[in-house]
């Protein structure tokens, strides 16, 4: 027997490992590509921002070069108007309102002339164009009279006061032009007027008495511009009707109603000043009861005279 036939373990042939070089290179390329993309994206945002700023600056420079002459001209005109207005104010208004429009308080603590800082150009335009200012002497209320200043002088003083602080500006014509007002606007304006204005100006807008010698002026014949300015500035005892209380459209509707009232005839005959029960009661007392009293006295005198005549005839 031969001993060379012993069983041996079969040899397993193991496969060769794949080389890692190509895989590493592929991953390296991908990582490099991502890094370069990130670098480009990081650099792109500032670059785009810089280019945008340069473009915006160029557009602004072009617009400024086109608009700046007119703006400079307007600024020069405003400065000249303010300077002229300050000179007029110092001569005509400072004795009551102070050299810097800060107002004057008397020793008794009363307000000799109120501060005009922040009242706006609309208040100045209203007071000067209606002749209420300057006042000849202090009183319970400034009354409407012939204006003292010209339109240019009023505009200059208004520009100066407006430069002292923010306030209502002089309204544009579109705000108070009611030449094309509709019936709906007129009706709406009447509702607002009866709700907010009749307590002082009465239902016909002819004005009325107020305490301490003051009064609400008549609105008949007042221009739409001055009505609008009065609503936004609140002269004297009148409250200020800001846009939060009455919108510009509501103010325009009130003006349309009042202007329509001026054209509407009085179908009730003699209106007695449209003062309501006061004038009607006075009319009744003076002409009604007064007439009856005179008639009674005349009848009594005639009766007494007739008795005397009869008595004389009997004695004769």
UniProtKB/TrEMBL annotation:
Its EC number is 7.1.1.8. PANTHER family: CBB3-TYPE CYTOCHROME C OXIDASE SUBUNIT FIXP (PTHR33751), CYTOCHROME BC1 COMPLEX CYTOCHROME C SUBUNIT (PTHR33751:SF13). The keyword Heme applies. PROSITE patterns: CYTC. This is Cytochrome bc1 complex cytochrome c subunit. GO terms for molecular function: heme binding; iron ion binding; quinol-cytochrome-c reductase activity. It is found in: Cell membrane. It comes from Nocardioides marmoriginsengisoli. It catalyses: a quinol + 2 Fe(III)-[cytochrome c](out) = a quinone + 2 Fe(II)-[cytochrome c](out) + 2 H(+)(out). The chain crosses the membrane at residues 282-301. Residues 1-20 are annotated as: Disordered. Heme c 2 binds at residues 197, 200-201. Binds 2 heme c groups covalently per subunit. Residues 80-165, 184-262 form the Cytochrome c domain. Pfam families: Cytochrom_C, Cytochrome_CBB3. Its main location: membrane. Heme c 1 binds at residues 93, 96-97. Keywords: Cell membrane, Electron transport, Heme, Iron, Membrane, Metal-binding, Repeat, Respiratory chain, Translocase, Transmembrane, Transmembrane helix, Transport. InterPro entries: bc1_cytC-su, Cyt_c-like_dom, Cyt_c-like_dom_sf, Cytochrome_c_Oxidase_Subunit. Residues 1-16 have a biased composition (Polar residues). It is a multi-pass membrane protein. GO terms for cellular component: plasma membrane.
């Amino acid at each position: 027997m031969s001993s060379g036939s012993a069983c041996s373990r079969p040899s397993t042939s193991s496969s060769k490992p794949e080389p890692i070089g190509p895989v590493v290179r592929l991953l390296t390329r991908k990582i490099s590509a991502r890094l370069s993309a990130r670098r480009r994206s990081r650099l792109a945002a500032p670059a785009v921002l810089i280019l945008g700023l340069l473009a915006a600056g160029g557009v602004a420079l072009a617009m400024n070069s086109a608009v700046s002459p007119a703006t400079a001209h307007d600024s020069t005109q405003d400065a000249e108007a303010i300077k002229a207005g300050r000179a007029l104010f110092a001569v005509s208004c400072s004795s009551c309102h102070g050299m810097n429009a800060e107002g004057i308080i008397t020793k008794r603590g009363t307000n000799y002339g109120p501060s005009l800082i922040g009242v706006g150009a609309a208040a100045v335009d209203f007071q000067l164009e209606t002749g209420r200012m300057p006042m000849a002497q202090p009183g319970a209320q400034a009354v409407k009279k012939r204006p003292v200043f010209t339109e240019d002088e009023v505009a200059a003083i208004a520009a100066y006061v407006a430069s002292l602080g923010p306030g209502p500006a002089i309204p544009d014509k579109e705000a108070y032009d009611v030449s094309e007002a509709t019936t709906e606007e007129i009706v709406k304006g009447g509702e607002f007027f009866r709700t907010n204005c009749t307590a002082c100006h009465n239902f016909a807008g002819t004005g009325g008495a107020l305490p301490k010698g003051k009064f609400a002026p008549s609105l008949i014949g007042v221009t739409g511009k001055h009505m609008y300015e009065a609503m936004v500035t609140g002269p004297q005892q009148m409250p200020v009707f800001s846009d939060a209380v009455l919108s510009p459209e509501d103010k325009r509707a009130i003006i349309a109603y009042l202007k329509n009232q001026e054209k509407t005839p009085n179908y009730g005959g003699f209106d007695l000043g449209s003062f309501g029960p006061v004038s009607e009661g006075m009319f009744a007392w003076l002409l009604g009861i007064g007439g009856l009293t005179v008639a009674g006295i005349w009848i009594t005198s005639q009766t007494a005279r007739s008795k005397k005549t009869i008595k004389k005839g009997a004695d004769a």
